[in-house]
């Protein structure tokens, strides 16, 4: 997953035009590749992420430990329906290969997003999850 999503992460980061003062959220951060790319590039004042998988939270935390310790990165367990952040927190929001597994993608209201930008990325072989 890490290798597959690396290129789309770079594309979305550039597409969103993330600035130094932006507060950024990645929904479904997986192993934390995009989070790490932003932190390494010095993008965003605060980089946050949520993932519903305890395993991905563990991997992403290990991968981004230095940025977490510095306070620039905040990774949390959570779901898109109930983001564990205050309303009007984020300037830029993105998700890679996760929207198709959101319980109700059309009904999700991201109140935490300021009037800003959101980008959804999908790799070519992404399939819709079946229940």
Question: What would you note in describing this structure?
Answer:
This protein is α/β, with parallel strands linked by helices and 131 residues long. The protein has one domain: Rossmann fold. It contains four helices and five strands; from the N terminus they run αβαβααβββ. The protein has helices at residues 2-16, 33-41, 54-63, 65-70, and strands at 23-27, 46-51, 73-77, 90-96, 113-121. Strands 3-2-1-4-5 form a five-stranded parallel sheet. Strand 1, helix 2 (33-41) and strand 2 (46-51) form a beta-alpha-beta unit. Helix 1 packs across helix 2. It is globular. The model has no long low-confidence stretch (mean pLDDT 86).
